[in-house]
Write a structure and sequence with these properties.
- The protein is α+β, with helices and mostly antiparallel strands.
- It has a single domain (about 5-215), classed as 3-Layer(aba) Sandwich (ECO RV Endonuclease, Chain A).
- It contains eight helices and eleven strands.
- The strands form three sheets. Strands 3-4-5-7-9 form a five-stranded mixed β-sheet. Strands 1-2-8 form a three-stranded antiparallel β-sheet, with no helix packed on it.
- Strand 1 (about 30-35) and strand 2 (about 40) form a beta hairpin.
- Helix 2 packs across helix 3.
- The chain is globular, with a radius of gyration of 20 Å.
Length: about 260
């Protein structure tokens, strides 16, 4: 199976993703939560809440895509396991797909994605811990990214609406942009936000959409080597060592083997 063919087929479903999430004017079609008494509560702008709802909305469309092309879908059993979805083609080729969302911080930048751990299963590629299938069994690792903007209007989260007032509720997010790239093509040089040992993405929107991250010129092998040997300060101290590098330039000096493809 050609992983490029998988990507082209899924890209063809982007129009369906857009229709699933947004109105013709670009606003999110989700307005809030409804209870059994038909009271509507507005949605928080919390990124985890928004991301989870988007994920749930897109799953049926992704399931239709899988059925259309004969892929078996295996969902992650646990929230902290990788990947969100494993696709198994008729020839048993496995492809990993993670759904990630982030918000715009400017006209050309976003807050960024976290692209999975750079420890554990990423380094022990025959391991089944915290991953659906061992990392080495996947032919490709894709990220389906959703970029959105926060709505400028202030949302009154204390107010309860009725169904008759549905059109009065302001959508908390709008203006969705979708991207589909292999993880290594959009990865950055530094971990994602927080103290978790996750790979961070680049934050330039154009680079994300076009797969022009910092490793794009060097290839997946360099990406793998960089992140398999990357140490945070805590990791280095735990083994009585020092941080060998924190960017590609320092990595080049550390290993002396970084060269551009072609």
């Amino acid at each position: 199976m050609d992983v490029g063919d998988f990507r082209e087929k899924l890209l063809a479903h982007f129009d369906k993703f857009a229709c699933t999430l947004a109105t013709d004017s670009g606003d999110w079609i989700v307005k809030g939560f409804i209870d059994v008494y038909r009271n509507i509560y507005t949605i928080s702008v919390d990124t985890k809440v928004v991301s989870k709802i988007i994920e749930l909305m897109l799953f049926p469309v992704i399931s239709q895509f899988a059925a259309e092309y004969g892929y078996r879908m295996v969902l992650s059993e646990y929230q902290n396991h990788y990947p969100d979805i494993s696709f198994i083609a008729p020839d048993e080729t496995k492809i990993a797909l993670d759904l990630k969302s982030t918000y715009r911080t400017g006209t050309k930048t976003v807050n960024g994605f976290t692209l999975g751990a750079f420890t554990g299963y990423f380094r022990q590629r025959q391991s089944s811990k915290n991953i659906t299938f061992p990392y080495e069994q996947y032919a490709a690792h894709f990220v389906l990214g959703i970029i959105y903007s926060h709505h400028n209007e202030v949302i009154d989260e204390r107010r309860i609406y009725t169904l008759d007032e549905l059109q009065d509720i302001v959508s908390v997010v709008k203006d969705f942009t979708f991207l589909l790239q292999e993880k290594w093509r959009i990865a950055g040089e530094r971990p994602g936000s927080g103290n978790t040992k996750n790979i961070g993405s680049v934050r330039d929107i154009h680079a994300l959409i076009n797969g022009n991250g910092v490793f794009a010129s060097y290839g997946e092998e360099v990406f793998d080597d960089y992140w398999m040997n990357y140490l945070t300060g805590d990791m280095a101290r735990a083994i009585d060592s020092h941080v060998p590098y924190s960017n590609l330039e320092e990595y080049r000096k550390w290993c002396g083997r970084l060269s551009r493809n072609g």
